Amino acid sequence: MNDATRSSEPAMSPDMKALLAPAIDSRSSWRELFILPLAAMFLAMLIGALIMMATSVAPATILQSFIAMAKGSVGSLHAISETLTAAIPLVLAGLGIGLAFRAGLFNIGAEGQMIVGGLAASIASFSITGASIWLHLPLVLLVGLAIGAVYAAIAGLLKAATGAHEVISTIMLNLISIRLLDYMLRQPFIQKEGRSDPISKAVLESAELPRILGFVDANLRLHAGIFVMLAAVAVIYWLLFRSKLGFAFRISGENPGAARYAGIRAGLTIVMAMAIAGALAGLAGAIQVTGVLGRATPGFTAGIGFDAIAVALLGRSHPVGILLAGLLFGALEAGGRQMQVDAGVSIDMISIIQALIIIFVAAPLLVRRIMPFLFPKKPKGGESPEEGADHG
Amino acid sequence: MDIELCGISKSFGPVQANQDINLDIRAGEVLGLLGENGAGKSTLMNILSGLYSADSGEILIDGTPAVFAGPGDSIASGIGMVHQHFMLVPVFSVVENVILGVEPTSGPDFLDLQAARAQVQEINTRYGMEVPTDALIEDLPVGIQQRVEILKVLFRSADVLILDEPTAVLTPQEVEEFFTIVRALRDAGKGIVFITHKLHEILEIADRVSVLRQGRIVGQGDPATFSEADLAEMMVGRPVSFSVGRGESTPGDAVLDLAGVSLYDNAREARLVDINLTVHGGEVVGIAGVQGNGQTELVEVITGLSPVTTGEIGFAGEDMTRASVRQRHRMGIAHIPEDRHKSGMVGKFTVAENMVLNSYYDESVTSGVQIDWQRVHARAAAACLSYDVRTPSVFLGAGSLSGGNQQKMVVARELERDVKLIVASQPTRGVDVGSIEYIHQQLIACRDQGNAVLIISSELDEILDLSDRIYVMFEGRIAAEFDNRGAGADRNAIGLAMAGVRQDFVKVVNRGDAA
């Protein structure tokens, strides 16, 4: 179809061919996307080591803990399986947050959207009986997705209708969702029979995400959710960079004045972007329940919705970046557990390292200053120096 | 205090912003600094005010070298900068704004407003500035606000004042008053650097002129020895034609017709009052007026960004009072917005993306819900060529183009389609002379094709140069209408209407017809 339309255009002049040649220095954007996060990670580990030393951990133990981290994240098939399993919800929720970022919205509510999505999915997973997995599982995931979308859309509607800031409203919705979860888990039709603590009935087999490495070893937890995750990366990439809707999102995020000028309806855009973000978070919750946990419990999301904010930041709100950042955080998570086991270093250390990575990524100039050799000066001058001072 | 800049050079990466600049600023003299956007004026003045440090060269103050580590050093040496964009706190009084940061105190750090007021009043009267010292900034007209900025630097005992494009926001009458103040300052022995791109101002006020082009001084001397054409040629590097040489217009049917349009904002304040305005095909209509007299709102109601409170808007015989931005876009209205950075473009997007900023949803560039980027790219490349947008590639971020090229990109996007009406708001703001010439030619070419063109500009010269008819806006009303064909409208009369001197609506008949 593209070929047909292209041939209908007039023949290209050499001037035009020159204009259509790629302009972006692919190496410098590659540096932005890969080298910077890697440098940030290195620096974070370095400072992590210093912190461990400051808390009088022996140098040998520090070394051992980093080895354990590597081993626990990528050192074996089991480790890789754990890394990927941990990455799935982080990437999904991160995609939603990143998409909202692109549209100029700061969605702090992924945690709450995961909770309601996961809760709804768990209810659907045990209350529908007798369905085949081909029908039941997609339905359950869809329920999680839809409820997450609706829940996030509340914050979007509040913003569009009253101007309530989404940061405040999503934080409030997070708190509401936590209490809602506690309440619902005690309801007779949800609570597991014979239990007095809040815990849901188990997910039926027909709604379980199958373990895809089960044929190698039944203990490998990696489940089919990884395909959903990869599909989501592709879909969000398409949405942001190929579709009309995504273009409208990006204009709204980069320059609201230009969006207004282009006739984009701000309110609709806000609600749509929040709903899509919530759909992804809700899906992450549903996948966590049906793929890993097998039931909903209080705090089943374990703060993934918050870590996903960091993933989206680290991935620079780019779907591929978010995928990589999610994998990194998954690895830190899996490696951290091993580190605790092998070296006896607290898993809180991982949180510190994660936080340090975010700080370094959020302050790219700092990394450039510390490690200038990784970032040779761009040959092109970029913006004219007059631009900033003179655009009045 | 005399300042001498010796061999100042400054580069940003490969861009040589200033190259071996020698400049004398003498006490009791107005130095006109002329140059296009991007010529290096701002960089030079930022070096002088301590924001940048020069790569080489030195600044001599009364013969002794000075080193500025920051703006504070420069201010301490007696250099004061009056920025083009005012830096005032609207809800503070004049005195409070003037003393902000250097408050006189008494006792253990108590603010001594009494002493401050006396000092400010003393400066105020010495230079005949007539600023009401206790009024709130937000209640003052722009011309007075500018004087507050001057008070600020004088309060900090500046001996050398740098005035960056000070007349951009003033009416012709305010400019005259402003020049009186500048002369008073000069006669009191202050050195003044007057930055502008308006040639006639240089000829009027400057004692000496220096012309900057591409970071170098390309001409200096006594303005009396130069003509406007000489200065323009030095500034641009080639002969420039000032008037677009528009031929006679042949107005056709009414394309845009506003009948009794009023607009009230959320606070129920009138922004537009009973606007009646017609633009015919084949005609350029100019809206003159000091910024902030309803021009922005007028553009918003015409382009659909704001719904009218009362009144009707007709477009080519149809009623479009309630049409959305997109419907109007489809009906054939092109809109060059007043501030390209705020709404006309997205700096982080590529040139190609910017070319479909407000038409990305159109069937001609989409297939279903997808944007057909290949087609967008080809079309953008073609538009860049036909509208002289100088970019190495359509994939370059629009933010890295020069102001002139950014504006040409916006113009290209708007004029490339089939349109019936072009609403061009400040179409050449912050654009180099060469691009101004080009954009003006394009707008006149649109007129000659039989389209209606509405130009809103705070530059009266631009309005006079392009328009066949001129409306003047004052406080949300059309204050006057002038015919600008033939001999042209009376500049002075327009100036008076801009200042709101004539409250009753006047329609001035064509002096060309009368003759």
Plain-language structure description:
The complex is a heterodimer of chains A (392) and B (515). By secondary structure, chain A is mainly alpha-helical. Chain A has a domain at 86-319. In chain A, 71% of the residues lie in helices and 0% in strands. Chain A contains 17 helices and no strands. In chain A, helix 3 (26-54) packs antiparallel against helix 15 (348-362), helix 4 crosses helix 5 (77-102) and helix 6 (110-127) runs parallel beside helix 8 (166-184). The model of chain A is unreliable at 1-10 and 378-392 (pLDDT under 50). Chain B is an alpha/beta fold and 515 residues long. Chain B has three domains: 3-236, Rossmann fold; 244-332 and 418-515, Rossmann fold, CATH 3.40.50.300; 340-416, no CATH class. Chain B is built from 18 helices and 25 strands. In chain B, the strands form six sheets. In chain B, strands 18-21-22-15-23-24-25 form a seven-stranded mixed sheet, sandwiched between helices. In chain B, a hairpin with a 3-residue loop joins strand 7 (105-106) and strand 8. In chain B, helix 14 (403-415) runs parallel beside helix 15. Residues 510-515 of chain B have low confidence and may be disordered. At the A-B interface, helix 1, helix 2, helix 10, helix 11 and helix 17 of A face helix 1, helix 10, helix 11, strand 19 and strand 20 of B.
